[in-house]
Amino acid sequence: MDCLFCKIANHEIPSTTVYEDDQVIAFQDIDPKAPFHVLVVPKKHISSVLEVEDMDKDLMYHIVTVIQKIAKESGIDQSGFRVVVNTGEDGGQSVQHLHFHVLGKRLLNWPPG
Ligand code: AMP
Ligand code: ZN
Known about the structure:
This protein is an alpha+beta fold. The chain has four helices and five strands, in the order αβββααβαβ.
């Protein structure tokens, strides 16, 4: 499948990986929008949050635990952070493989642009 994040998950394209296991890879965003900007990506190809199925519920919980781990290791659990899942055209999704942006180490504006 011609999917950027599948290729990163398969190590066909390099990334600055901060966490990896058999189900998930997390790596630095190539164009960071905050001093801390990591993408947490299931290795399974799921095109968006709209495609998550009942069988993925353990995977979704696992992703949350990975986000917790990354947050604690980087210190943003103390300062605060944001998890973003852009979806579809109006949501600004540019890669059609589910990914969780984890942003921190600056004050994040609300509402987002
Ligand atoms: P989205 O626009 O929500 O679909 O997020 C896609 C993200 O992937 C953007 O923040 C991009 O900067 C990021 N991105 C694109 N290509 C790469 C890459 N090769 N390595 C790391 N991050 C990437
Ligand atoms: Zn994919």
